[in-house]
């Protein structure tokens, strides 16, 4: 044991032996696979079979083991055991195997090439509580704060439950990933040496709860759809405020709050401040301050405020650390985050809202998004982080970041070439086909979406109800070919994992299921945060959130829980009020941010409206409400602020009337795009018919003109403030 920041903790143990002699299960499994004594299909009904993930994990471990010869003796043991026992006769052994695998992953939890997906598979989807309980033990927090292990487990289970498993990206695995990254940063000497147990406790809880109850859409979307949270937090750090308040809700409900009563105010303050710092729109603010410290008097880590600032930066880095993971892991995260963006774009399209550039699967692509994100968001922060740490870990991060960046750039280039080729072949077709019937082409490297084809046809200018009857969209390449093109980007697993559990999906027979009618409820399937109940309850929630820190009686606990996450079983009479709804009675409730940081006061909310309106009229009603309530909504830009209509994202600010922007944005870019397209096609044809050689540069240039606003624009402006808010904020 060594003493660490006043806490007792075990030393790093030697790397565990995955096929430890005391772990007979692994032996049995290996025999099953190698010698086919027990085929997987032979497992009797009712017995538990190994999942694919478990088999892969064991195979991976075995490969390593058998090559270096460490497990030779096990081969002997294996034979002996097999003759006496079969896996199917003792399914409980699989639990041991589970534990062996989990232990193996956890023993490497301090290493950077950590794969949260592997831990999730090994733990049967419980990576979040497993990792956190492990870390709490590892740091000695259980002993130091005399925490009850059951309450700790309950707390992390609640947190896990609070993440939406239906989100491709903002789910519990992302929380696990960020917490592990935070753990790595906390191990860095410059930081570790000075941290107090309370700071470690706050940092870990903040990391694991930093996106709690994330709805899978960003703040501008919540504002544009008049979500009650936007009003509750005055359109300011809406999600981040909700995340930290949800974290406090879990502390209360698990009764962990009572166990840390002596430090609770400080703990809550730190959690709030750390989570609020993850608001990506505040990146410039933090970066400027960080640079100031590094270039000026430096940071004095003996000062609590400096330590807290570094923890804020550490959490921000951990939150966007996926580009710094090894390529295979990083790529997986990239695909997932883009799929979430694209889903939001689909919702926006269905609600007749202007589609955020970054979220439009038809006009942007994963490599494009990644290149912009790496260049304008991740690198600037990590350059400074590396300057501060300057350790083997930070060098490793930078190495991965650069390598991954180059790979995305190469993929983007490849995409440009593919697009150019397709453009030429399309141009040839154009000469025979009237322009009106030309389909919109998908980028070759977009995340595949296995939803109804019908939704692909829908355009802003086409009424939702008629969209389903349009002629199917043609693609430049037949499906199998598209798949092939996606080869370097996606493996089978990626594709499958991107299937939305909520969208229409391809049925087993291969046909596509019907698209659901458009209603705000259907659009965001798991938006539990919007499940506010009656105004009375909302008021009680408000009082709990804003300062009533007295120990809660049971009903109050239940209330917090109910407001934060969807009740497991909703009463029959429960009326959901999402998007279009807010509670009139809440007007009087007051709000104060106990952290004193960027948390807005309560403003009068929209008139009470039920969400279960006629789905066909949802968009109409939505626009009406928008215009009715606009004067009440506060935004960071005044309502009448002139804005650049060419920027979709700018147009989507909550403070700008959604109805007018929807009209402008729905018609303008499309018309422009169409006419540009025709001009381009004609030009290409002219060039080709005149027999003039077309250089690559020319091709590239013509391709670049395609689509709506280039990502670079959004991101560059975002760095200076405005568009980043609208695009990146999740
Ligand atoms: N690989 C990525 N590509 C694009 N955006 C990302 C990527 N990783 C993280 N982000 C964005 O950065 C944001 C950081 O905070 P969030 O986790 O709330 O939401 C995240 C996403 O919106
Ligand atoms: Zn996050």
From TrEMBL:
Active site residues of this protein: 170 (proton donor)
Cofactor binding, note field: Binds 2 divalent metal cations per subunit. Site 1 may preferentially bind zinc ions, while site 2 has a preference for magnesium and/or manganese ions.
Keywords associated with the record: Hydrolase, Metal-binding
Superkingdom in the source lineage: Eukaryota
SMART domains documented for this protein: HDc
InterPro entries: HD/PDEase_dom (IPR003607), PDEase (IPR023088), PDEase_catalytic_dom (IPR002073), PDEase_catalytic_dom_sf (IPR036971), PDEase_CS (IPR023174)
Pfam families assigned: PDEase_I
CDD domains: HDc
Residues noted as binding AMP in the record, renumbered to the chain: 170-174, 211, 319, 370
Start-end of Basic residues biased regions: 677-689
Region (Disordered): 583-612, 633-713
The EC number(s) this enzyme carries: 3.1.4.-
Cofactor(s) the record lists: a divalent metal cation
Listed GO biological process terms: signal transduction
Ligand binding (Zn(2+) 2): 211
Chain ranges of the PDEase domain: 94-415
Reactions that this protein is recorded to catalyse: 3',5'-cyclic AMP + H2O = AMP + H(+)
Family: Belongs to the cyclic nucleotide phosphodiesterase family. PDE7 subfamily.
Name this polypeptide is given: Phosphodiesterase
């Amino acid at each position: 044991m060594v003493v660490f920041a006043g806490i007792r903790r075990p030393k790093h143990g030697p790397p565990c032996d995955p096929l430890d002699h005391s772990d007979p299960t692994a032996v049995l499994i290996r025999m099953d696979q190698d010698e086919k004594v027990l085929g997987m299909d032979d497992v009797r009904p009712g017995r538990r079979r190994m999942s694919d993930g478990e088999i892969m994990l064991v195979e991976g471990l075995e490969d390593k083991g058998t090559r270096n010869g460490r497990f030779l003796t096990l081969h002997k043991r294996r034979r002996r055991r097999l003759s006496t026992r079969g896996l199917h006769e003792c399914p409980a052994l699989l639990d041991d195997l589970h534990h062996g695998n989990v232990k193996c992953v956890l023993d490497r939890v301090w290493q950077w090439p950590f794969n949260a997906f592997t831990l999730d598979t090994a733990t049967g989807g419980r990576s979040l509580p497993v990792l956190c309980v492990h870390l709490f033990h590892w740091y000695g927090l259980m002993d130091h704060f005399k925490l009850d292990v059951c309450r700790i487990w309950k707390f992390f289970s609640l947190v896990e439950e609070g993440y939406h498993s239906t989100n491709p990206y903002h789910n519990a695995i992302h929380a696990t990933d960020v917490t592990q990254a935070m753990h790595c940063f906390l191990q860095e000497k410059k930081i570790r040496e000075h941290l107090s147990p309370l700071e470690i406790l706050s940092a870990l809880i903040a990391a694991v709860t930093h996106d709690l109850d994330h709805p899978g859409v960003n703040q501008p979307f919540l504002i544009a759809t008049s979500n009650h949270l936007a009003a509750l937090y005055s359109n300011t750090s809406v999600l981040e405020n909700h995340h930290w308040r949800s974290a406090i809700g879990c502390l209360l409900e698990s009764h962990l709050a009572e166990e840390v009563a002596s430090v609770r105010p400080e703990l809550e303050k730190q959690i709030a401040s750390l989570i609020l710092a993850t608001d990506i729109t505040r990146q410039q603010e933090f970066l400027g301050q960080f640079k100031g410290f590094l270039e000026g008097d430096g940071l004095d880590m003996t000062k609590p405020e400096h330590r807290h600032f570094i923890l804020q930066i550490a959490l921000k880095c951990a939150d966007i650390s996926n580009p710094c993971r090894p390529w295979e892991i990083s790529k997986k995260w990239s695909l997932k985050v883009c799929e979430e963006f694209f889903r939001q774009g689909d919702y926006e399209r269905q609600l007749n809202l202007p589609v955020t550039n970054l979220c439009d699967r038809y006009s942007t692509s994963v490599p494009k998004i990644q290149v912009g994100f790496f260049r304008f968001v991740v690198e600037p922060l990590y350059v400074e982080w590396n300057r501060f740490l300057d350790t083997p870990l930070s060098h490793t991060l930078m190495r991965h970041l650069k390598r991954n960046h180059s790979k995305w750039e190469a993929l983007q280039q490849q995409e440009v070439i593919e697009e150019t080729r397709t453009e030429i072949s399309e141009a040839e077709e154009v000469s025979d086909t009237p322009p009106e019937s030309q389909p919109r082409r998908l980028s070759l490297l977009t995340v595949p979406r296995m939803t109804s084809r019908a939704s692909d046809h829908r355009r802003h200018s086409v009424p939702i109800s008629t969209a389903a009857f349009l002629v199917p969209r043609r693609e430049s390449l037949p499906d199998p070919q598209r798949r092939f093109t996606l080869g370097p980007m996606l493996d089978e697993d990626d594709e499958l994992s991107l299937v939305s559990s909520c969208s229409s999906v391809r049925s087993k027979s291969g046909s596509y299921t019907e698209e659901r009618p458009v209603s705000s409820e259907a659009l965001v399937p798991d938006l539990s945060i919007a499940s506010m109940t009656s105004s009375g309850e909302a008021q009680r929630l408000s009082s709990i959130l804003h300062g009533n820190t007295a120990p809660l009686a049971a009903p109050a606990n239940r209330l917090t829980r109910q407001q934060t996450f969807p009740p497991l079983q909703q009463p029959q009479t429960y009326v959901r009020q999402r998007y279009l709804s807010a509670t009139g009675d809440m007007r009087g409730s007051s709000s104060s941010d106990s952290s004193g940081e960027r948390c807005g006061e309560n403003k009068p909310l929209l008139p009470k409206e039920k969400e279960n309106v006629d789905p066909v009229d949802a968009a109409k009603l939505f626009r009406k409400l928008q215009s009715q309530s606009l004067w009440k909504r506060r935004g960071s830009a005044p309502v009448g602020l002139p804005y650049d209509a060419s920027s979709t994202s700018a147009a989507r600010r909550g403070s700008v009337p959604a109805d007018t922007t929807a009209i402008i944005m729905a018609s303008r870019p499309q018309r422009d795009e169409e006419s540009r397209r025709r001009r381009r096609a004609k030009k290409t044809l002219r060039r080709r018919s005149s027999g003039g050689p077309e250089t690559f540069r020319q091709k590239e240039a013509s391709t670049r003109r395609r689509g709506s606003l280039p990502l670079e624009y959004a991101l560059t402006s975002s760095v200076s403030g405005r568009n980043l808010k609208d695009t990146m904020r999740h």
